[in-house]
Write a structure and sequence with these properties.
This protein is of the alpha/beta class. Helices cover 25% and strands 23% of the residues. The strands form five sheets. Strands 4-3-5-2-6-8 form a six-stranded parallel sheet, with helices on both faces. Helix 6 (134-149) packs across helix 7 (178-186). The longest helix has 16 residues, at 134-149. The protein is globular, with a radius of gyration of 21 Å. 43% of the residues are buried.
């Protein structure tokens, strides 16, 4: 996911027939997404965020919202493709690569780790071997209801899922979505937050035309939402989602995008090729010292020696990056692990 992280990693988003009207010129005000979500979540029992699995930027707002939603009284957190087989996740307090399909990506791991630290009861809702289409979507919705609201009618739930799993109406994978089944089964109308469409892509011609116009006309530095005078949020897909999050443009410095600071929760630390000890490519990973050797890394950076004169497309295609990078870390104590291209550890350092 390193290239997806730095270059956008999101699916191209052309204008589609079911898109709503552009918010520009429609009487909307652009507001910070966290403020809008928090206000709208006050009266909700469930908040559903979606993400683009190959674009970790779509996890950043969710991570930043978890402490605020916990303070608001939300107490359960469910994420797509967490595994039921990790029986010790809650007790252990941190995820391992065996905790779920996507968890080894550092921001996904940070999302699960954050939920655990905040005291959320973390649950796996995806049903393995449930098939595809309606079978999987219905099974996931039924499990959410059974594991949360049937056991605890006063529960308040946060869900993270991919793409249109959380939409409340419309066709999905030739059937219905988990979000629609959940609403039918539970009688609960979740606040659904779309985060996969209005963002900067690897190439400008992959951006949605609304997004291109928004970032050209408006200045904003935080994930934001358009809100009408009546308090209703704008969504690119009317009826399917309650709001669409617009992510600001970003810079990439030493191969790592600046949104990795998570709104100031993490600090960037330089990493140089000296750590590789002449072995390239090499991976530098930071792990919390108070977690086990099996933990998901807090962050990782890939280093390599390259021909700086080679065209960028050639360097990316060959998996080449600069010989300097950055690690983004929360306050804490870490040890660094450096491994070569076949996974051999070359050194460990405490920082």
């Amino acid at each position: 996911l390193r290239d997806g992280e730095a270059r956008g990693g999101a699916i191209a988003q052309p204008k589609q027939d079911d898109d709503g009207k552009s918010p520009l010129g429609g009487g909307y005000t652009l507001k910070p997404a966290d403020e809008v979500i928090l206000e709208m979540a006050k009266t909700r029992k469930a908040v559903f965020f979606n993400e683009a699995h190959s674009a970790p930027i779509t996890r950043t707002l969710t991570i930043q919202m978890l402490p605020k939603l916990r303070e608001l009284g939300f107490d359960y957190f469910a994420a797509e493709t967490l595994y039921d087989t990790d029986h010790d996740l809650q007790k252990r307090g941190y995820p391992t690569p065996k905790s779920g399909f996507y968890v080894n990506e550092p921001l996904y791991g940070d999302m699960v780790r954050t939920a655990l630290k905040l005291g959320f009861k973390v649950i796996a809702y995806d049903v393995e071997n449930a098939g595809a289409g309606d079978e999987r979507e219905r099974a996931g919705a039924e499990k959410l209801y059974k594991e949360v609201f049937r056991k605890d009618p006063n529960a308040r739930l946060v869900v993270n899922a991919g793409f249109a799993h959380v939409q409340k109406t419309g066709k999905y994978l030739r059937g219905s979505s988990m979000g629609e089944f959940f609403k039918q089964i539970s009688g609960i109308d979740p606040l659904t937050i779309e985060q996969t469409m209005m963002m900067q892509h690897g190439r400008s011609n992959q951006d949605h035309p609304y997004y291109a116009a928004i970032v050209q006309q408006m200045k904003f530095t935080k994930p934001s939402v358009f809100v009408a005078a009546d308090g209703k949020a704008w969504t690119l897909k009317p009826d399917k989602y309650d709001m669409s999050v617009i992510f600001p443009t970003y810079a990439v410095i030493k191969t790592r995008p600046n949104w990795l600071v998570l709104g100031g929760e993490r600090t960037a630390y330089p990493v140089t090729s000296d750590m590789c000890r002449g072995q390239y490519p090499c991976m530098v990973e930071a792990f919390y010292t108070n977690e086990g050797e099996d933990a998901v890394a807090a962050d990782r950076a890939l280093l390599n020696m390259i021909d700086t004169q080679a065209p960028e497309d050639t360097r990316v295609q060959n998996g080449m990056v600069q010989s300097q990078s950055r690690l983004f870390l929360r306050p804490g104590t870490y040890h660094l692990k450096v491994t070569d291209k076949i996974g051999r550890a070359s050194c460990r350092e405490r920082v």
